[in-house]
Amino acid sequence: MGVIVREPNGRNRLLVKGAVESLVERSSHVQLADGSLVPIDEPCRQLLLLRLMEMSSKGLRCLGLAYKDDLGEFSDYYGENHPAHKKLLDPGCYSSIESDLVFVAVVGLQGEFILHCSWFTSVS
Question: Which superfamily, per CATH, for 2-109?
Fold first, then answer.
């Protein structure tokens, strides 16, 4: 799942979260702890997936985080009146929009996630 946000410098950035395997596959670079970007090669992909397996084996629910700054026609996106907005509504476009990402992190979530649902009935 991705969202386009306006950065404090006025530029748009696509932030993406999702299955680690999927984001690693769609990423062309990884951001290191010092902020530098390096291209992802096959050994790097395998290392990220190994880290995912290690974390998952400890019972953590894992998500990947990535971003994209070069947004092409979405670089000046401002809302539903933007000419390219229709593409954001079409799931068939998601893979092309969420490609060439910069992979940032594998996040492990611990604990139970419980969906709370309340049912209300109206009394007339």
Answer: Calcium-transporting ATPase, cytoplasmic domain N (3.40.1110.10)
